[in-house]
Every structure is written in C-alpha cells, then in structure tokens.
Design goal:
Layout (H helix, E strand, L loop, with lengths): L5 E6 L5 H11 L6 E3 L2 E3 L11 E2 L2 H9 L3 E7 L2 E6 L1 H7 L3 E5 L5 H7 L4 E6 L2 H11 L4 H13 L7 E5 L4 H22 L1
Parallel strand pairs: 1-7, 1-8, 2-7, 3-4, 8-9
Antiparallel strand pairs: 3-6, 5-6
Helix pairs in contact: 1-7, 5-6
C-alpha cells in the first residue's frame, strides 16, 4: 500500500485557512482517502473559529511528555500540536490535511520530506476586514498581523498557492480539486 500525502496548509492568520479546510472537509466527507487533522491548541474552543481540541497548559505538557505529538510549536502566546495519529493515517494510505505554522514549515519538511505545502494568500485589505470580523484581535494586533503578513517570505521548496480574496467557493473548489486529484492518484497507485 502506498503511503498517503501530507498537505501542510499555511497562510497569514485571517487568510481563510480554517474556512477553506471546513469547505473541503464538507465536500470530501465521503472520500475515505482524505482526512483532516485536528490541532491541539492551548486556546478555548470558539463558536466560529477553528475546529480544534482545546487543552490547558498542563494537558499540553502531559501529552508532550508522553510523546503524543507528531509536531508541535508555539505562536502568538499559544501552543499547537498535531497528534501522532497522522502517522497511522499516512501509513494506511490516507492523505492528511493539516493547518500548519509558516515558521514551523522547515521542521515539518524535515520530519515529512514528501509533504505538500499549500500557501493561502489574501490581500492586506481583505485580511484586515476578516481579522476585524472575527473579533479576536485588537486594532493594534490586527496592524501587527498585517505587517507580519507583508514581511512573510515564501518558503523554499515545492509550494502550491491558493489565492483567497474572492468568495469562499472559488478558492474552496480549487483546494478540493487539489486534494481530490491527490486522493484519486493515491487510490490508483495502491
């Protein structure tokens, strides 16, 4: 059986990664060849935010000490982890889609050399509007995030880009197509 592919989705906070992943997850729900990894985050669950598993700092430390994370990093005062279950899914031939960190990408590529990085881009104007609409950041924090997004350098290595300035279904269908082609080719090569 062929090993599955890891799709590592990155982009500025507010670029629409969670919305794209939610869209693709709904569209590909009947495809057993594509699974979406949850992130474990030291942040409470939000009604309209990312579908993640909320952990306290103590819980995160315990899982880290037990070796339960395949990847983990810190960003913006929060801690993020991806469970080791992704290794089982990949070994079973499933393609795994995860929300990653731009700064952690070199380490993720070291651990998973065949991963496909997907960069979600958005214009500064749309980014600012989305950050304001979600209501998690102050105006100062929004300004900092926009400045950080402008300074972001494209990572080295293979990269797929999805522009997400238009309606969700436009970028969403491009994302679904990318994952569907990978899922179909994985089933054919088995």
């Amino acid at each position: 059986m062929a090993e599955g592919k890891l799709f590592y989705v990155i982009g500025a906070s507010g670029s629409g990664k969670d919305s794209l992943m939610r869209y693709a997850r709904e569209r590909l729900a009947a495809d057993p060849g594509v699974v979406f990894a949850h992130r474990y985050i030291t942040r409470p669950v939000e009604l309209h935010g990312e579908n993640h598993v909320a952990l306290t700092e103590t819980e995160f430390d315990a899982r880290l000490a037990a070796g339960l994370f395949a990847m983990h990093w810190e960003s913006h005062g929060l801690r993020y982890g991806i469970g080791r279950e992704i290794n089982l899914w990949l070994a079973k031939g499933c393609n795994v889609v995860m929300n990653g960190s731009r700064e952690y990408l070199p380490e993720a590529r070291f651990r998973y050399p065949a991963l496909t990085a997907i960069l979600v881009t958005v214009s500064p104007e749309v980014l600012a509007a989305r950050l304001r609409a979600r209501g998690r950041e102050t105006e100062d924090q929004i300004s900092q995030r926009i400045a950080r997004a402008r300074q972001f350098m494209r990572p080295d290595g293979p990269l797929k880009i999805i522009e997400n300035d238009a309606e969700l279904h436009v970028a969403g269908e491009r994302f679904v197509q990318l994952l569907s082609v990978a899922s179909t080719s994985a089933r054919v090569s088995v």
